[in-house]
Amino acid sequence: MAKYFDIHPESPQRRTIGTVADSIRSGALIAYPTDSCFALGCQLGNREGLGRIRSIRDLDHRHHFTLVCENFAQLGRFVYVDNDVFRAVKAATPGPYTFILRATSEVPRQLMHPKKKTVGVRIPDHVVTQALLAELGEPLLSSTLLLPGEDEPLTQGWEIKERLDHVVDAVLDSGDCGTRPTTVIDFSSGEAEIVRRGAGDTARFE
Predict the structure, then answer these.
(1) Of 49, 123, 125, 186, which has the most beta carbons under 10 Å away?
(2) Comparing C-alpha atoms, which of 98, 97, 61, 105 is closest to residue 79?
């Protein structure tokens, strides 16, 4: 059964955040809110957690997973960012954007696109997510909580707890966080390619 945590949206309870971070370090898979919608997340090197996300979402090996980072310094450890791309990404973060970039050796091979050697990265503008990332001290391996055959992500913490009770270990609920997933921009070729139009404005990349 998944543990349910009711988190204050503006002043996250420090002890609760610490408890959740400890559970992630111990191998937990969580459902948590972001600035676009709910996501599934686990520790970066958690192979079992990765497999559970694939199973819940019915994902194949070509799916781009996302490293949700606390800040730009952390993001820069995991992807290569040249000067032009740096300016574009920096101007759009934190915010509801995922950027696909070439991965560094810090990224486990199983997270990279098998041919392109790329990975998704993002810096969310969400108080609860930022508090958790700060406590964890490393990125969360994440994927949008969009179930197979459904058009929109789940948005209510109680419903996530009800439907995923036996496949996730914890649900963090700080209120409704929307149904639009991130806008995805692929910079792996050096030029911006809009892969998915979502919560983030695409005008700056067109």
Answers:
(1) 123
(2) 105
